[in-house]
Write a structure and sequence with these properties.
The chain is an alpha/beta fold and 254 residues long. The chain is built from twelve helices and seven strands. A seven-stranded mixed β-sheet has the order 3-4-2-5-1-6-7, sandwiched between helices. Strand 6, helix 8 and strand 7 form a beta-alpha-beta unit.
Amino acid sequence: MKKIVAVANQKGGVGKTTTTINLAASLAVEEKNVLVIDLDPQANSTSGLGMSLSHSAPSAYQFLVGDRSAEESINPSSLKFLSLLPGSINMAGFESEAAKIKGAHQLLQKKLDDPAFDKFDFIFLDCPPSLGYITINALVSAHSVLIPVQCEFFALEGLSHLLKTLERIRKQWNPGLNVEGILPTMFDRRNKLSNQVLADLKKHFPEMIFKSVIPRNVTLGEAPSYGKPVLLYDALSRGAQSYLHLAREILAYG
């Protein structure tokens, strides 16, 4: 049975796309069938997995509004077991269009019932840095939400706001939505603030926080410019190993 995971945080620059790409690739290395659906209008997951952005190619936007089928929209990546439903700048228009559509918050949920998705073990929804219709669609559709949190000053404030939003989603549309885990990102063990934020996360959310911690690592920043997950760019780097550890933690503990 497929597991749908939204990677979400309304704050930008916390590592959502980096986590989506590299966790998906790490699970694919473990021979799990994985799909990334790029819902962010910036389409960084798409370019980060080596696919060129084309206005004519089937995209998540066209799939969501019904212009293209799932079969037309899903593409293989350069990594075995990893597929991509690419993003598009056109997704930016979905926010205004959705306001006019009855039941717009459930569009993606209905689309993901397509049998074409049944072959996947994991489906990752890369969300934009906002809590608009796109992210709401992802949260209504998902079984769980993975929350990357940068180890910086405003981390806890943004996280509290997101958790309140998740509670509203549960009450209104998706009572089964769970928190897959809170993932500390861009951690620098030499930095006092990073250590303090990590300690605070463990103190306030002991049952939600992953044991895996993603370090601040230059290879994680370099790999997308080559259109590769970090595992295909430098498999022995600390960044690559941290996402492998996260994948194995998810497989072991859920």
